[in-house]
Amino acid sequence: MNSTSVLERAPAGRSWNPKLACAATLVLVFLSGAVVGALALDLGGVHNRQRPLTFDSPQAKALYFDHMQKELNLTPAQTEQVQSVLNDFWQYYRTVLSDGKQRVEQLLDEEQRKKFERLLQQQQPH
Which residues in 107-121 are b (16+ Cβ under 10 Å) and which e? Predict the structure, then answer.
């Protein structure tokens, strides 16, 4: 195989295609930004690939409350009422999950229950 570079094979006096150079530059800038952004999220602890926030975790609830309060421009009284309603919903959600877990466990033998418990533990946040 010939080991000459692309530049060595190009005819003398021939310049780069400006459109190709612009497209290549844009692609490199985009990819660089994506890499830097991913590293910043990962190093900053914002992005956790192993354990995403669960729907009813304290962190997720706090983020959701904050987002709703800002987006809807809730008054303090409305914020308190919305928090109360959503806390009731999350309590209902946990009750339904617990009931569903108990019902599934009743269908399983002892070995299956152990495996089921391990599967559920894998889904829990740290």
Answer: eeeeeeeeeeeeeee
The total domain count for the chain is 2
Angstrom distance (rounded) from CA 72 to CA 79: 10
Distance CA 39, CA 46 (A): 10
| pTM of the full structure | 0.45
Report the C-alpha gap between 81 and 72 in whole angstroms: 13
Each residue's pLDDT tens digit, 90-125: 888 888 888 888 999 999 999 999 999 998 888 765
Query: What range does the domain containing 29 cover?
Result: 6-43
**Residue the block writes with tokens 């006096």:** 13
Measured over the CA atoms of residue 43, residue 49, residue 50 and residue 54, the dihedral's sign is positive
Task: Collect all residues with Cβ–Cβ distance below 8 Å to 97 and sequence separation of at least 6.
Answer: none
Verify that 24 and 65 share a domain, yes or no.
no
85 Cβ contact list (under 8 Å, min separation 6): none
